[in-house]
Design a protein that fits this description.
seven-stranded parallel beta sheet, Complex I NDUFA9 subunit family protein, Rossmann fold, 11 helices, about 325 residues, disordered C terminus, NAD(P)-bd_dom_sf, alpha/beta
C-alpha cells in the first residue's frame, strides 16, 4: 500500500480501533489527519509515523464548517465514531446518525475518492435496541450522501484496550461471581482489533468494494457463558457464573445507567441488544471477500494482555496450577 501523495482524514482516530488503524496507515506514507474534539489526545499517535505525518485536527462533528475543514483536500475519509451508551450530548442519534451523515456529505462535496464507515453487526432499523437502530440509520445516511462508501460491521472487537474482556477480567478480581445476562446463551463472534484495522486498509486498496457492506467476525462463535469461562481461565480465577433473567438485567441496567460520571457497566439498551446473537450472517460478505484469511483467535491473543489480571503475573506457577489442577485452594 502506498498513498504517499494522499491525505487521509480519520474521524474517531484516538479510539480503540483508531490507534491500531493509524499505525497501519502510517506505513503508507500518507498524511493522516486525526479529526478529534481534543487534539491533545493525538500526541501518543505521532510516533506511529514520521515527523509531521500524523496531524491532530481540532474538529467539532456537530458543525458543518468544522467537518468541512477536516475533509478539505482529503483523498480518503474514514469514520470510526461510535458510542456504547448515551451521556449528555453524546447520543446515538448525534454520533451514529447525524455525525456520520454530515461526514459523508461533506466528504463527497470535498471530492474524496473513497470513504470507509465502521458500523456494527446487528445494525437493524427494526431492532428493539436504540443502538442498533441508530447504526442502521447511520449506514443509510452515509450511503445516501456517499453511495460509494464501504460499510464494515464488526462483531465485538477485542484487543489490549477493549471494553469487554478487560471489564470482566477486572470484575473477577473483586467480585465473587460474574453475571450471565439472559442465562449466557447469546452468541458472539469476537474479532481481533488488528484484523478490523487490516479490513479497513483492504477496503481502501481493493476495487469493487465501493458501496458494499462487509460483516467482520472472528474465526469462532462463542456463547456469552463460554466467553466468561474463557476470561476466567485466562486470568486463572474461579468465580461463580450466575444467570441473570432478562427482566432483572433490564432493571439493573436502568439503575446503573443513571450513575453520574462513571461509564455504566450495563444499560437497558445493552440488555435489548444482547437478546439477539451478534454473529456474521451466513449470506454476508466478510473477511474472505476482502482478501483476509488469517484471523487472530481469542485463545491466543487474550493471554497477551489479560495477564496483568493474574495474581503474581503470567508466569506464576502457583496460579497456573490452581487454574489447571486446583491444587492450592488457598490461592483462590
Amino acid at each position: 500500500m502506498s498513498y504517499r501523495t494522499q491525505v487521509i482524514t480519520v474521524f474517531g482516530g484516538v479510539g480503540f480501533i483508531g490507534r491500531h488503524l493509524i499505525r497501519r496507515l502510517a506505513k503508507s506514507g500518507a498524511v493522516i489527519r486525526v479529526a478529534t474534539r481534543n487534539p491533545g489526545k493525538v500526541s501518543f499517535l505521532k510516533t506511529s509515523g514520521s515527523v509531521g505525518q500524523i496531524v491532530p485536527f481540532a474538529t467539532d462533528v456537530t458543525k458543518d464548517e468544522s467537518v468541512a475543514r477536516a475533509v478539505q483536500g482529503a483523498d480518503i475519509v474514514i469514520n470510526l465514531i461510535g458510542v456504547l451508551y448515551e451521556r449528555g450530548s453524546q447520543t446515538f442519534q448525534s454520533c451514529h446518525v447525524d455525525a456520520a451523515g454530515r461526514i459523508a456529505r461533506l466528504a463527497a462535496a470535498a471530492g474524496a475518492a473513497r470513504m470507509v464507515h465502521v458500523s456494527a453487526i446487528g445494525a437493524d432499523a427494526n431492532s428493539p435496541s436504540a443502538y442498533a437502530r441508530s447504526k442502521a440509520a447511520g449506514e443509510k445516511a452515509v450511503l445516501a450522501a456517499f453511495p460509494g462508501a464501504t460499510i464494515l460491521r464488526p462483531s465485538i472487537v477485542f484487543g489490549p484496550e477493549d471494553q469487554f474482556f478487560n471489564r470482566f477480567a477486572a470484575m473477577a478480581q473483586i467480585a465473587p461471581a460474574l453475571p450471565l445476562i439472559g442465562g449466557g446463551k447469546t452468541r458472539f463472534q469476537p474479532v481481533y482489533v488488528g484484523d478490523v484495522a487490516d479490513a479497513i486498509v483492504a477496503a481502501l486498496e481493493l476495487d469493487g468494494v465501493q458501496g458494499h457492506t462487509y460483516e467482520l467476525g472472528g474465526p469462532r462463535t462463542y456463547s456469552f457463558r463460554e466467553l466468561m469461562e474463557l476470561t476466567l481461565s485466562t486470568v486463572r480465577r474461579r468465580r461463580f457464573l450466575v444467570p441473570v433473567p432478562w427482566n432483572l438485567a433490564g432493571t439493573l441496567g436502568g439503575l446503573l445507567e443513571k450513575v453520574p460520571l462513571l461509564a455504566p457497566a450495563l444499560t437497558r439498551d445493552q440488555v435489548e441488544l444482547m437478546k439477539r446473537d451478534n454473529v456474521v450472517s451466513p449470506t454476508a460478505a466478510g473477511f474472505k471477500e476482502l482478501g483476509i484469511t488469517e484471523l487472530g483467535t481469542c485463545e491466543i491473543i487474550l493471554p497477551t494482555y489479560l495477564s496483568r489480571f493474574i495474581v503474581g503475573g503470567r508466569y506464576n506457577t502457583l496460579t497456573r496450577d490452581v487454574s489447571v489442577h486446583e491444587k492450592y485452594p488457598s490461592a483462590r
